[in-house]
Write a structure and sequence with these properties.
This protein is about 50% helix and about 5% strand. The protein is mainly α and about 325 residues long. It starts with a helix and ends in a 9-residue tail after the last strand.
Length: about 325
């Protein structure tokens, strides 16, 4: 019995080392392909053009900012950062019509499509800049446009040729996830707990619909698998925004303090039990993640630095190389 247990541990450890080694090879390959200023020679105006288009769309509708960040995150987590989330099927059998992707911002999708068209129209740039890279640029741009840090983004991704509606609901975090579930999901994409907390800080801008948290504000704790505490005044305000007979379009701000500014107020809110989703509030409730929340709440620079580093790692997930990808002519269809 003891001998079998020891043997099992050795086999498990060997398997784990093999997985880690393979992940390292994949990450190294992606890192070698990606670099800042990737289009400096082939399409030097690409980044400034994307920023100009995205800036115009953010001015027209603030929803473009959080929507673009969410679009980038969902794209990278489902099939890797290959713009597969942008592909559209005439019968609706695509990623954007499945699970949490069904509520992706149409304003953000339109902004990315317009940015792609603008880049394609630049002299000598047709067929050179991928939709996946434009989405990565746009995600960077909406952060700085709303008051967050400015940073260089790694580029050189190819667009994917396939999409899979069925897997969407299995690979994205849910609003009721606890810390173990969050850590497990992010670790499967090569991201640490620190990365996960920093990326959760993107909830400093944007909204979520009532159906994502209504049970949390009306159901007794014992009837939910997991429901961290909530500030009583905050709870009362949410019940006004989302009554029990709420409409499908009803929503609440993810950051009750500064919902239109990319800052560290999201983390300060968690310290006062004002996290809208259970998966937000758990970051402070759980003692394993609380110190990081405290640090980010007290130090905006620490949050910004961690967020930029996490976005770079996020952008390396599942990068397509060689014949696995292409540069699409339009973001909604393969060539």
């Amino acid at each position: 019995m003891a001998g079998g247990s020891s043997s099992g541990k050795l086999l498990w450890r060997a398997a784990l080392l093999a997985v880690v080694a393979l992940a390292g090879i994949i990450v190294d390959a992606a890192s070698a392909q990606l670099r800042q200023n990737y289009y400096a020679s082939s399409c030097p105006s690409a980044e400034s053009t994307v920023r100009s288009v995205i800036s115009q769309h953010v001015q027209q509708s603030f929803a473009v900012a959080p929507g673009t960040l969410r679009l980038f995150f969902h794209d990278c987590f489902v099939r890797g950062c290959d713009a597969s989330v942008m592909l559209m099927a005439s019968n609706g059998d695509d990623e954007s019509h499945s699970g949490a992707d069904a509520t992706l911002s149409p304003y953000a999708v339109e902004a990315i499509n317009k940015a792609k068209a603008a880049v394609e129209a630049l002299p000598g740039c047709a067929g050179k800049v991928s939709c996946a890279d434009i989405l990565a640029m746009a995600a960077r741009d909406v952060v700085s446009l709303t008051g967050g840090p400015s940073y260089g983004v790694e580029l050189g991704r190819l667009d994917g040729r396939t999409f899979n509606r069925a897997i969407v609901k299995h690979v994205l975090p849910g609003p009721g996830f606890d810390l173990n579930q969050l850590n497990t999901l992010f670790a499967s994409n090569g991201l640490t707990q620190l990365d996960m907390i920093a990326l959760s800080g993107a909830h400093t801008i944007g909204v979520t619909h009532c159906d994502k948290f209504v049970r949390r504000i009306y159901t007794f704790k014992q009837r939910l698998r997991y429901n961290p505490p909530m500030n009583l005044d905050f709870l009362r305000s949410l019940r006004k925004v989302c009554p029990m007979n709420y409409t499908p379009t009803s929503f609440a701000m993810l950051d009750v303090s500064t919902p239109r500014a990319f800052d560290n107020a999201y983390f300060d809110n968690l310290r006062y039990n004002k996290g809208l989703l259970a998966s937000d509030q758990v970051l402070f409730t759980d003692r394993r993640s609380r110190p990081t929340v405290e640090r980010f709440a007290a130090n905006a620079t620490a949050f910004n630095d961690a967020f930029v580093a996490a976005m770079a790692k996020l952008g390396r997930i599942g990068v397509k190389t060689g014949s696995d990808g292409e540069v699409r002519k339009v973001c909604t269809a393969v060539n």
